[in-house]
Amino acid sequence: MDVPTYTPAEAPVPEGEIVVERGSTPQQLGPKFNRTAADVVRFLLQQGEMVTATQSLSDDMIELFALDVGAEVSLVDPGQEQEVELQRVLDIEDDEDVDTSDLPHRAPVITVMGHVDHGKTKLLDQIRNANVVAGEAGGITQHIGAYQVHLDGHDLTFIDTPGHEAFTAMRARGAESTDIVVLVVAADDGVMPQTIEAIQHAKAAEVPIVVAVNKIDRENADPNRVLQQLTEHDLVPEAWGGDTVVCEVSALENIGIDALLENLLVVAEVEDLRATADGRARGAVLEAHLDMGRGPVATVLVQRGTLRVGDPLVAGPAWGRIRALVNDRGEQVREAGPSTPVEVLGLSDVAQAGDSFVVAPDERKAKAVAETRERWHREASRARDASVMSHGARLEDIFAQIQAGEQATLNLIVKADVQGSLEAVIESLRKLERPEVRIGFVLRGVGGITESDIQLAATSSATIIGFNVRPGRQARELAELEDVEIRTYEVIYKLLEDIEAAMVGMLAPEFEEVVTGEAEVREVFRVPRIGSVAGCFVQSGTISRGSKVRFLRDGTIIWKGEISSLRRFKDDVKDVASGFECGVGLSDFQDLKQGDVIETFELREIPRV
Ligand code: GDP
Fold it and tell me: Which atom of ligand 1 is nearest to the CA of 114?
């Protein structure tokens, strides 16, 4: 083929940031830069990439082209460009260049990140508890996705989902919700892969990092080694002449937590965080789920303005007039100002973590915008899924497809317990995509794994991934019949490990949790001196004392542990078989309800051929 050499056209490229949708074609891309589709194709050909004018381009290709013509590019997800139009309907002014120096201060919003098991959860618990003890009446902080603590007349807001998955998922959706990252590093373990990832995420978001060297109570704690390691990642402690604030803490023994909080306040002061409490509220959705009693519930973080009961709200494709606001103490409130996390009731639909929300000028506009978004989402995902499903493969077949040199697509159906974890799982999975393997999300949803999920998996050659959710008995039976693989997980990195392994043909034998018995809760009683006992009916298999067990409500795991006591009438027994009633003693977990399912299981290795 005769390849003309690429010479930059004379027309100047537009000034400023050029917004480009991911996956744009040369035909769409060229004109944005005052170039033709042919210019783009020619340039890429020179780089060794053969594309046609109507083929989607990768992020790298788009950025390379922009660099070459000397333009500044901002990549957005499809649909976001149209968003600009909707923002106009909602009459939102762009406040990027507004002078904020006269506005009131607001509380810093803090996210805790770090390697697994380094103590993020413990630290968040300790901060929350310390505040309850020291705090005024109002009592226990609820799990609403974020909470506030008060110290020396100041507030600090903590995002209550530790880990960088949630943080990244939020950022990927354009929600810059965090002001300060607390990086937890265990003093006995030092800097680990997820520590480094967390540092990278915080740096990419240009968010200051405060290091909490945790577990200093441990005998083998070596805080100095941690500091040394952090230096290698450009975090130089203040004590060593750098500007990184480092606090030594023990989340377990409550050592150094106050000092950490004080330091966070100092960093917040330096950051000079301000926002107006006037005007229509705006912010980000932190977490959203469907509550059986209350309908769709979203925890939002107000970033500016004041959110009030009765306001017409739009959050992504959901909208509604706010019926009630509930704060992190579980109290109903009338309003919530900047940096306040609050639960919103009254939305039409389950919003997604990372969606931005805004109070609309009126209800009609709120509805119109939400419905337009909903339609776009539907169209976009239908188009993507259709193209994916027809080419995709199951987890066990993916390696063969890659080896065959085809563009392989791994078809997944992902179900999770709450919207936030679903987002996190999807975002993390997306990062595993490589040029030769793509992941097709045939379906993603919140809730237990159902028979219709199995049916869809069977017809679309998909593997089902459950995160903190399980299939019911009928779904499980159908899966066996249809030869659909269901993999369930409770930690993201295990899931990612498996998928990565499958991509290189090394999917490890799975320790399948084989269900050994299933019982339905018919009634819960309180027995003096024993505590609560669930009166159950064994529906299949056998329930045995000492077996591993999980409690399910609508297919979602609500508790895991062991059966400590098992009775038939007044007698302690070892096993109860299907068709009989029994009493299961509840020790740690008391919150069973009628209709919940008790599932016992054991681990068996499934060899792979
Ligand atoms: P995460 O995975 O980072 O959320 O870690 P967790 O908060 O779940 O903590 C992991 C384990 O470390 C748990 O067994 C905690 O009890 C323990 N742990 C957390 N903080 C400390 C600490 O300061 N000292 C000691 N000795 N153990 C801790």
Answer: 3
